[in-house]
Specification:
With about 190 residues, the protein is α+β, with helices and mostly antiparallel strands. The protein has two helices and 14 strands, in the order H-E-E-E-E-E-E-E-E-H-E-E-E-E-E-E. Strands 1, 2, 5, 6, 7, 8, 9, 10 and 14 form a nine-stranded antiparallel sheet that branches. A three-stranded antiparallel sheet has the order 3-4-12, with no helix packed on it. The chain starts with a helix and ends with a strand.
């Protein structure tokens, strides 16, 4: 009786091992494909009418002027075209923040430190590229949820955070501080 029980245990163990090996072999290529292809997906896109600042106002493009180098500021929230922004989420966790229909994005001028609007490589077609790895780091932003949808918007090149400096004032970047309402943004 003990020989039969021992044989059954060995056969059951072999059956379980075979089932496990089959599961591993079948699941491994699927997991590799999911990892390898994760950046082949189109970016997520959300458009918002106002990106509110925790201190006052909303992110604004003065006079809705989409010229390269136009500084970006904060103005009284009014849901105008000057305050309409699109967030392109890429698989590497970064975002491009675009304005209007010409493929212009929020850009941090690496020489002057000015937050401005600037062409992105490839315009709208470039924004739709899956990984966002073609964009320069000064045009990519990280969003850190600080509290119920209020975000710090951190530049990927410098690690500094976007800051509102008051109504009718240009934005800037500074060392990140989640307790500073002027650095918190809600979309």
């Amino acid at each position: 009786m003990s020989t039969i029980t021992g044989t059954r245990r060995i056969l059951a163990s072999l059956g379980a091992a075979a089932a496990l090996a089959t599961t591993v072999l079948v699941a491994a290529p699927a997991a590799q494909a999911a990892t390898a292809g994760a950046c082949d997906l189109s970016p997520t896109l959300s458009t918002t009418l106002s990106v509110y600042n925790g201190s006052t106002g909303a992110l604004d493009l003065p006079s809705d002027n989409e010229a390269n180098g136009q500084r970006v500021g904060v103005y009284t929230a009014n849901q105008s075209p000057a305050q309409t922004w699109s967030f392109w989420g890429y698989c590497d966790g970064t975002y491009a923040i675009s304005h209007g229909g010409a493929g212009k994005v929020l850009d941090l001028d690496s020489r002057s430190g000015a937050v401005q609007l600037w062409d992105t490589p490839g315009g709208w077609d470039g924004l739709n590229r899956p990984a966002g790895d073609w964009m320069p780091a000064n045009q990519k932003w990280l969003m850190t949820d600080e509290d119920r949808g209020w975000y710090l918007i951190r530049n990927a090149a410098t690690g500094q955070c976007l800051k509102g400096n008051g109504i009718a004032q240009y934005t800037s970047v500074t060392s990140c501080n989640g307790n500073d309402p002027a650095q918190r943004w809600y979309r």
